[in-house]
Amino acid sequence: MPARIVDASFMTSASRIEEAPAESVGEVVFLGRSNVGKSSLLNSLTHRKNLAKSSSTPGKTRLINYFEVIYKDDEAGQKYRIHFVDLPGFGYAKVSKSMKYEWQKSLNEFIKNRRTIRLFVHLRDARHPDEPIDEEVKRYIEGFIQPDQCYIEVFTKSDKLKQKDLARILKSRPGAMLVSNLKKRGIEKLENAIFDIAIGGSECP
To answer: Distance between CA atoms of 25 and 117, rounded to whole angstroms?
Structure first.
């Protein structure tokens, strides 16, 4: 294994881009529908049980959460710092139209203007691989993503599907990854991919 996450800690929460930390290190943005297992995946990736907390009400969290993550390359004996950015889940929020508009506007500004973002990790539920809202998000990001940024699709809850269904997802979506928080399947592979892309400068899958 070229590098692994050896430490992770919560930094801050921001309701708008002005409250975000200074753009100092590379950032990995995690986004996905509410209830897709984003918090659980962040905890699995960072080897911390309660780093990211799940909301009991899907879509309730409307804050951008920042985590400082330390990777270590054991062979070189070198450490690398990066930020994981947990965006609010979309799709379930029961808020007023005006609040939803302000919320979306803030997220749009963050996603498009944050120049330190190296990688967008779009989490999708393997049981519902073709959700229209996920396809919209994919097209949206592909519409503005910069040459020095990457986008990958990660399908969660892969333990719920049969092998043939998983093979179908991978065949139709080259470069996609399958993970299971329950079985800890695909977690190390994703951990490596994030390092290679966001820190190592590897090409997008």
So the answer is: 9
Q: What is the CATH number of the domain that holds 137?
A: 3.40.50.300
Residue ranges of the chain with per-residue pLDDT less than 70 = 1, 54-61, 91-104, 106
CB 70 within 8 A of CB 81: yes
Q: In what order do the strands lie in the sheet with 78-86?
A: 4-14, 64-73, 78-86, 27-32, 117-125, 150-156, 177-178
C-beta atoms surrounding 140 within 10 Å: 13
Our count of domains for the chain comes to: 1
In a domain, 35, yes or no: yes
Confirm whether 68 is domain-assigned.
yes
Give yes or no for a contact between 26 and 116, defined as CB atoms under 8 angstroms apart.
Answer: yes
Q: How many CA atoms lie within 13 A of 133 on its CB side?
A: 13
Q: Which residue, among 40, 70, 63, has the nearest Cα to 52 in the 3D structure?
A: 40
Could you tell me which residues are beta bridge partners of residue 151? 120
Domain range for 42 is 4-121+133-150+187-199
As a 3-state breakdown, the chain gives helix, strand, coil percent values, each rounded to 5, of 30, 30, 40
Residue 158 lies in a domain: no
Interval 130-161: pLDDT, tens: 998 889 888 888 888 999 999 999 999 999 99
